[in-house]
Design a protein that fits this description.
355 residues, Rossmann fold, 7-stranded parallel beta sheet, 12 helices, 49% helix, Sc_DH/Rdtase_CS
Length: 355
């Protein structure tokens, strides 16, 4: 009887041609959320923030010791959480994450594809072996996670969210990080294609792409470096909490894209409107703002082929760290933001008329 009712409801939805934004997702306090790359940086901050908001957390990463400490910490604070040691570049490991969530909590409601690693080096110098390995994590890990989550939501017939963490380098090519940029371009293309196909089918899945700018995490310390000097963010950097805020917002509210920081949105727009100018701008600025004066970490210190050190939210970057992204705040409250902007515009117009 339930199958008949479900099929009838699905037929009505197909006739309606519902948009993704019309899906009703659970409140975070009622959710089970899977987070990959949860042992450090954005994933670690998101796991802690999600738990504090009442969600049950499934923390996945390669660093087993860090995951155990994280889950112990969350449980001591009265939250429900489990850990799964997994390499997202291995399809069987990704399925293991889903199986663990189902066994512990009966399923999951949001899957965050966050795990990532970068390579700093010229396009003509990075080895093909290293490129392939990085794509396993950054691109194929997203593919495996997305498909696993979609299968789960389709089987249980309750709406859920897939949240893929992209990059502003996925909207625009970058010098020195060509492999990472290429993998993130692939993530963006995959996410858009997946979203359109699911929406066409009226599938109960919200698909969101997060576009972070430069974030203060151990990202550079974990990277494989071909440079003489240590990779580092120099300039304006955003706190990882700003990305976590965007992730958790879209876990409750279906949204196509979330840009973290005006920096990310500006570069995406500039690249589309003035591509040749953007080429020159990035050639001029990126070489000197992606490393500092320290000697680069040796290849064996990177987390490309093994787990990096865990339980660090922030990195060793140099610059102006913004703890809040007003672009994220504005995206979360578009009506209020529009009203404020309109009020400011009206006030300026009135002042100009008086003059």
């Amino acid at each position: 009887m339930k199958d008949v009712e479900y099929d009838s409801a699905m037929d009505m939805l197909r006739d309606k041609n519902r948009s993704m934004e019309e899906l009703s997702l659970k409140k975070l306090e009622d959710q089970v959320i899977v987070i990959t790359g949860a042992s450090s940086g954005i994933g670690l901050v998101t796991a802690r923030m999600a738990a504090k908001k009442g969600a049950k957390v499934v923390a996945a990463a390669r660093n087993e010791d860090a995951l155990q400490e994280l889950v112990k910490e969350l449980k001591n604070e009265g939250h429900e959480a489990i850990w799964v040691a997994a390499d997202v570049g291995v399809e069987e490991d990704v399925q293991k994450i889903a199986d663990a969530a189902i066994k512990a909590f009966g399923g999951f409601d949001t899957w965050v594809n966050n795990a990532g690693i970068s390579i700093f080096g010229k396009t003509t110098e990075v080895s093909i072996k290293d490129m392939r390995r990085m794509f396993d994590t950054v691109f194929w890990g997203v593919v495996y996670g997305s498909r696993t989550a979609v299968d789960h939501y389709m089987d249980r017939r309750v709406p859920g969210a897939v949240i893929n963490v992209g990059s502003f380098f996925g909207d625009r090519g970058a010098v020195v990080q060509s492999t990472y940029s290429s993998a993130k371009f692939a993530v963006h293309g995959w996410t858009e294609s997946l979203r359109m196909e699911l929406e066409k089918e009226n599938a109960p899945v919200s698909v969101t792409l997060i576009h972070p700018g430069r974030i203060d995490t151990p990202y550079n310390e974990h990277a494989r470096s071909y440079l003489d000097k240590q990779p580092t963010h120099i300039g304006m950097i955003y706190a990882p909490e700003t990305v976590a805020e965007a992730i958790l917002y879209t876990a409750e509210h279906p949204k196509r894209d979330m840009f973290v920081g005006g920096q990310a949105k500006f570069l995406a727009l500039l690249g589309r409107l003035a591509p040749r100018f953007t080429d020159k701008f990035m050639e001029k600025t990126l070489y000197r703002t992606q490393h500092d004066d320290r000697p680069s970490n040796p290849p064996e210190a990177s987390a490309l082929y093994k787990a990096g050190y865990g339980l660090h939210e922030r990195g060793t970057n140099k610059g102006w760290i913004r703890e809040t992204s007003y672009y994220v705040k504005a995206t979360k409250h578009p009506v209020l933001t529009s009203a404020i902007a309109a009020g400011i515009g009206a006030s300026l117009w009135a002042a100009l008329r008086k003059k």
